[in-house]
Each structure stands twice: as C-alpha cells, then as structure tokens.
Amino acid sequence: MMPGVFDGLRVLDLSWGIAGPIASMILVDNGADVTRIEPPEGDPFAVQSGYRVWHRGKRSARLDLHSDSDRSVFFALATQADIVLDSFSPGTMSALGIDHTQLSARNPRVITCSITGYGEEGRDRDRPAFDALVAARTGLLYDQKGRRGTPMEYILGRPGPLPEFDGPDGMVRGANRSGPVFPRTPWPSVGAAYLATLGIAGALRAREVTGTGQRVTTSLLQGALAAVTLNWQKVERPDAPLYWMWPLDARAIEGIFECADGRWVHHWTLRPNWVLRAAEGDDPSSAAVDFSYRGDPDRVSMEDDGLLQGIIQYPDLAAAFKKFPAEAWVKAAEGVGFGVSLIRSPAEALSDPFFIADGCVAEVDDPEVGPIRHAGQLLDFSSTPGAVRGHSPSSGEHTHAVRTEAAAALDAAETPDHDVPPKASQPGVDALAYPLAGVRVLDLGLGVAGPFTGRMLADLGADVVKVNALYDSFWNGTHMGLGINRGKRSISLDLKDEQGKAILHRLIAQADVVTTNWRPGAAARLGIDYQSLRQQFPRLIFCNTRGYEKGPRSALPGTDQNAAALTGTEWEDGACDAGNPPLWSRSNMGDTGNALLAAIAITSALYHRDRTGEGQEVATAIVNAGLLHTSYAWVHADGSPGDYHHVDGDQVGFSAFYRMYRAADDRWLFVAALSEHDQKLVVDVTGAAVSESDDAVDGALARALAERFASESASTWAGRLERAGVPAEVVDEEYCRTLFDDPEARQRDLIAQTWSGSVGRFEDPGLLVRVTPGGGIVRRGPCMCGEHTREILLEHGFTNEEVDCLAAAGIVLDAPVEVPPGA
User: Fold this and answer.
1) 582: which DSSP letter?
2) pLDDT value for 312
3) Alpha-carbon distances of 96 from 67, 80, 214, rounded to whole Å
4) Strands (DSSP E) along 7-56, which ranges?
5) Cα–Cα dist 618/381, whole Å
6) How many CB atoms within 10 Å of residue 151?
7) Which residues contact 146 (CB under 8 A, 6 or more apart)?
8) I need a labelling partner for 472 at 20 to 30 A (CA). Which of 115, 149, 385, 734 fits?
9) Nearest CA among 268, 160, 221 for reference residue 591
10) What is the C-alpha separation between 386 and 199, in angstroms, rounded?
11) Contact 675, 629 (CB under 8 A)
12) In the 8-state DSSP scheme, what is residue 301?
C-alpha cells in the first residue's frame, strides 16, 4: 500500500460508542496506526453491529487505567503517541490523571481530542451522553419530518406562508403518525464524528507549523447542531425576498414516490411536467426534453408558490409514478439527465457493483463471520491514497504486543538519543491564531455540498473567497445560501468571458486551495482542473467532490436526496423493513457530510503539504457520506444482511428500554436503559406489570411501560427516572427556540450572531469544534454576491480604474454592502 496522509501517526483510541470509533476509523483508513485501549472487562458497547466496521484495521489492548501499573503502561504509550482520542464524560480523563495537561507535560507535541455529550462546561455537561438522548433533548427528533412552516418560522413563533394549507392527502413518510420520530441514523454522533476528525486534521496542521501539541473538543450536542446547521436560523428580516424556501416544511413533497412494482424512488429536483408527460405513454423514456437540467422552465419554484404547486400536484404525481416500475423511471431519468434514484436498503447499497469497483464499499475477511462488505475508503488523495487495512480485532487481541511496546518505550525514555532533537516549528512561527491561519481558499462550489466546505474551513481560520457567478444573487439570498456562505468574502465573475477566466487564474495563482463540486469535465473546459494546474502550482490543494461514485452515474445530477436513497439512509430512517414508506430526514447530512469529508481531506492535505511541500488532488462524494451514515450496516459476501438493529414500525426506538414513550400531557419521553441494572430500575420506578424481561417479551414489556408512562406527565417521569439514576430525557420540541435566547449558548459560541446584507441580523449555529490554543473564528456574516469584488481585485494587483471598467463591461459584479456600525 502507498503511504496514507496520516502515515506514521500513532493514535491511542479510548473512545467508545459511535462518534469516536468512526473518527478513528477515518484516521486508520488513511494510514494512522490506531490502538484501541479498552477496560479490562472490554468495551461496554461492543454489542453494536457498527463495531465490526468502525474498528477495522485497528489494534485492541485491554488496560486498567484505574491501576497505577497499567496507567504507567498508558503513559509510556502516550509519550510516543501523536493523538489521544476519548469520549469519556467531562472530568474523567482528569480524574484518571491522563488529561491534556498531564499528557502534554510528558509529550508536548501530543494532540488530544475529547468528544463529550454536551461539552466540558455548562449546565448540561453531566447529562447522560447517549446519542438518542441528545437527539431527544435538542428536539432533533421533531426535525425528521420537518416542521410546519420550516424550522426558521417555528423558531420565530410564526406559522409560515400559506398557513391555511395542509400537506397533500395520502402523503406518508415513515411512521403514519404525528409527533417526533426516531430515525435509524444517529445524527448527533455522526455529526460529532465529522467534527472530531476535522478538528484533529486542523490540529495536525497547527502542530506541523508551530511544533506544539493541540487540544480538540467537540460534543454530541455540536454534532446535532451540525445536522441542522442550515435549518436552525433566526434572522432580523425573515420576509426578505428569496429567504424562505419550502424543502424543510413538513407539508412539502420531497419527491418520494411508490412505483408499480411496490418499490420507491426519490425524484429530485422535482420536474412535475416531465413526470406527467412521461406517464402518458407506454414507456416513461419516451418523454424527451429539449432543455438542460438547470435550464428547465418547468422546474418547481423554491418559494411559497412552489410549496402550493407541490401540494396540489402530489396526487397526480403519485398516480403517474404508480404506472411504471421503479427501474423504468430510473432509466427514463438517466436518459434526460434528471435525478430519479431507487430507494434501496443498506444491503442493496453494499452489493452495488459500481460502489465496490469505486472502493467506497470494501470487502474484508472477518475472522468471526467470514467475508463481509461494508463502507469502504471515503476520502480520495492523489498522492497519499488510503485504504481499508483489515478486519476489526477481537477485544484485547493485541494486549501483549502493546505492553511490550510500552516497555520498550520506557527503556528508550531512560536512555534518550541526544542526536535526535525535538521537532521545531517552522521558522518564525511559534503560534497560529487559528488552525488554518494563512490559508487562502477559492470556493467555486455549487448548491450546498460544495460551498459548505468553505464555511467549515473559514471557521478554522482560512481566508475563503467565494467565486460567484453574476446571477448567484438568488441562491445567496436564500436561507441555505446564507448559511453555507457565512464567514466568506465574495467575488462575482463572468467565467464565460475570457477576461473573467483570466481573473480567475490570477486568483488561483495566490491560492492554497481550490474547491469545487462540478460535474466531470467542467473544470477542464475552463483550464482549472488539477491536471491543468499541477505543473504551474505544485503546492496547490485541489478538491472536486462528486454526487456519486467514480463510474457510470458520475454525469448525473448528484443531490443529498438521491444519495440518501441509494445508500440506504432513507430506507432505514423510514423503517421500511417494518413496512413503512421511506423518510428523507430533514437533518440528513448528505450534502453537508460531503462538505465535511471534503474539509477533512483538504485540511489533511495541507498538513501533508506543510511536511513535504507537495500539493495534491483530493475528493469525496455525497454517496460516500451516505455510506458513512449507514456504516453500522454490513453484509455477507452473498449479499445477505448482517445483524444490526432496525427501527420499529412506529418509529419510537429499538426496544422497550431504548425508545420514546408518549406521556399523559402528550409530550414524549426517551428512555435509554442499556444495562440490566438500569432496566430493572425502569421497571421498579414505573411499577410496570411484567413477568419477564427477555427479548421474546419485549413487545409486551413495551406495552406495559407505555401504559404506565401514559399515566403522568413526561417531566414527572423524567424526574423520577433521573433521581433513580436512569438515563432519560423529555423530547423537547421547543429547544430550537430557546437556544437562540440562551446566554450560555452565546457565551460558549454555540450560536453565532453576524449580519447579512439581505436579512440583517443573522443568527445560526456557531463554532462546532474547537482546536486550542488557537481556536476558531466566525469572521463575518454570509457574503452577498459580489460584495467584496473590488476589495479582492485590489489585493490581486488591479487598480480601482480597472475594476470600474470590468464592472461596466459586465465581467464582474461590484456590489459592496454597507455594514451597520457594530454589526
């Protein structure tokens, strides 16, 4: 194997659950030597099906960190470690004497990363940190089907446009009931995994520049905020033109339809007239079009008239899709370049020959169950390619070898090699203000999946220049356009004009990173693909992300929705195995997950460049993010599913002791009693009449508990369970409202307040991962199209007179925005 981008790094992984294991999986896939440190009795969460995937390629050792002797072993390992990762509750590492202060005293270059439930400070720091409980406490379970009017309107206490209309008759997504729903995807943990990995990559870059170790912190709370970061906004002028969009509205149709064969497809973006014309004949492929994907005159508006159009046309569209089998619709859409994807189970996704050929699905020989397939390598590096490096180890399999290494490290510490000086910082650099300080990024991304990459890099301190087309004012003014462009500056160019292309090339000459998400061939036509640029700019990091795998689907329009369909996310989140329709979760992280993977790859490539001077091309795909989201799933080599939990048909949870219950006040309570001790306490506290508690009677037990919980309010039961020590939370529908008025959330930078030229005061989720000592920054509010054109051109050697001429000729848009004092 070629060396991965993290080749030579040693990682001690003390994490368990979901977020930490996924983060260290990405590290080991890309070359790091990861050793899991488990307690003597083994990992308490080892029953998770995902462990067979997330721990591939790692080693496992059992140590008792409460004993002096094993703690000495750990310290010996930590003196040679680059990264120590944990997911303990706040204060645990300190109590064990192995927190960042203690470790950095022995190893000044060590990077520590802690993933907690709610952060290391604040009133919720000690609340139970189970994924479902964080999703309940934050109200994320109410965001799965969308909120009526959109979350932005709900946060403001307004009904949103067209309050007199309900959703279409007959439209059911997931469980056919109102209230919160439990998705299969653990969104808080998935978000935290992305954030932790990005933070670690930023810390590695900062350490390479400064020579000193770093401290990375994030939480499941911040992971939950990452999942809804474009949905939860509070603005001064919510009725500003363009701002409101309907896709997050609970009443909106999102393009999921059942076909003649009983299979479901996701059609996005919606082309109602094409669908209705295609259904008129005997074959949907007979409906030709004479316009491009983006030039469709019948494309549904994203404003309130589009919401109404969808509500009115839904019955006709549902009947149209029912006329032909799913594959016929998929083939017809491919023929005209539209997006229609078969909604598949994870098992079907993991058997996709195109995914397997791409490498985003990998096959390994598991010593317990034989050959299996699961999510594969999710990041592409041209010079430092990663790979899945083996199966998951058995618990404690490498304990003897790890103890031997620790003993050797102790011996080496007693006889230091004076000929090898400690690695110093780069000349003249003792500290960085931010992990990506001094890095300039040109963001040519489209939609959400591209530009959100730049937002995350800006939060880490990069100077991100958004390159807009002249007509981008529409998208930049929407709630999504505002969210993805926070922290950036905008220059607006006509790239169809030769002078516009020449300006872009001058910008590239001073850039460290160019990031796009264009379809194959588009960058080459402008002469800005990596092959065209690498000789002239050998230190350049070039990123182009895709919708799909590298294969026959590459030229199709790639969207969050289509990827969620193909990778099994919608299948599992809707509980399709229980007979439900699929569900596109409004907290789905297809686009934003792609962007976070891209940000991880870019930041890792910058770390590699600082070590070697070598630039490279990096990439990922929206389907890669989808495969990460369903990475708890694996299949046998024959395609039969492995053993993993499915959500029940009512979408309340996994079992009687890990699910929601409706209380007497019509609020919901989530109980997460995983241990036998906690399960007995639940029965004792509720007084539920049960005779057994094994799996065979789980349904009867759930019914008995549901009857008891329905007798009193959710808060009453939550108080009783908390006093007994049982992990439980009330599902808080109002959390997204109260968050914006919470002084503690602002003090902890969970909410950022900036200013936008279109909506005025702009508030949204703030800094989601911290890398200290530098930290992160929200430099400015969302950029408007062409807002900084003149400023950027002057920085690149143009004169004011030249800018005036370019603007007059329509080659650039010079549209400065006057920011009020103090905004």
Assistant:
1) P
2) 96
3) 9, 19, 20
4) 10-13, 33-38
5) 5
6) 28
7) 248, 249, 250, 251, 252, 586
8) 149
9) 268
10) 19
11) no
12) P
What per-residue confidence (pLDDT) applies to 418? Answer: 45
Helix pair angle (68-78, 399-414), 10° resolution: 70
Give residue-wise pLDDT tens across range 151-199: 999 999 999 999 999 999 889 999 999 999 999 999 999 999 999 999 9
Catalytic residue from among 366, 472, 494, 591: 591
Mean pLDDT (whole number) for 793-801: 98
CA distance 439 to 461: 8
- DSSP H/E element including 191: helix 187-210
Q: pLDDT tens, 644-669? A: 999 999 999 999 999 999 999 999 99
Q: For residue 200, which of 105, 115, 119 has the smallest C-alpha distance?
A: 115
Are 404 and 61 within 8 A, CB to CB? no
pLDDT at 693 over 60: no
User: pLDDT band at residue 801, thresholds of 50, 70 and 90?
Assistant: very high
Tokens 């939550």 found at: 718
What gap in Å lies between CA 554 and CA 545, rounded to an integer? 11
DSSP state of 631: T
Residue 458 in tokens: 């800006």
User: Could you tell me the sign of the dihedral formed by the alpha carbons of 87, 93, 94, 99, in that order?
Assistant: negative
Q: What is the pLDDT of residues 711-734, one digit of tens each?
A: 999 999 999 999 999 999 999 999
pLDDT grade, residue 420 (50/70/90)? very low
- Both tokens of 46, joined, read 């080892």
In the chain, the largest separation of any two C-alpha atoms, in whole Å, equals: 86
Residue 365: beta bridge partners? 371
Tell me the one-letter amino acid at 257: F
Owner of token pair 């539209």: 338
Q: 388 is written with which tokens?
A: 């899945």
174: left (phi over 0), alpha (psi -120 to 50) or beta: left
Q: 756 near 784, Cβ under 8 Å? A: yes
Global pTM value: 0.97
Type of residue numbered 480: M
One-letter identity of residue 459: D
**Residue 746 parent element (H or E):** helix 743-747
Cα separation, 547 vs 21, whole angstroms: 26
How many other β-carbons are positioned within 10 Å of the β-carbon of residue 212? 17
d(CA 687, CA 327): 52
* 506 Cβ neighbours under 8 A, 6+ residues apart: 796, 797
Is 591 annotated in the active site? yes
The structure tokens listed for 625 are 């993010």
Tokens of 562: 């289509």
CA atoms within 13 Å, Cβ hemisphere of 371: 7
275-282: long-range pairs with CB below 8 Å, 24+: 275/317, 275/320, 275/321, 276/316, 276/317, 276/320, 278/320, 278/329, 278/332, 279/319, 279/320, 279/321, 279/323, 279/324
Per-position b or e across 72-97, b if 16+ CB within 10 A of its CB: ebbbbbbbbbbbbbbbbbbebbeebe
Token pair in block for residue 636: 């046998």
d(CA 324, CA 343): 15
Q: Is 585 helix (H, G, I), strand (E, B) or coil?
A: coil
What are residue 514's DSSP bridge partners?
Answer: 442, 542
Distance, CA of 793 to CA of 506 (rounded, Å): 9
CA distance 60 to 444: 42
Summarised one tens digit per residue, pLDDT across range 766-776 is 999 999 998 89
Structure tokens given for 579 = 């007979």
Neighbours of 281 (CB within 10 A): 12
Q: What is the pLDDT of residue 415?
A: 66
Confidence of residue 297 (pLDDT cuts 50, 70, 90): confident
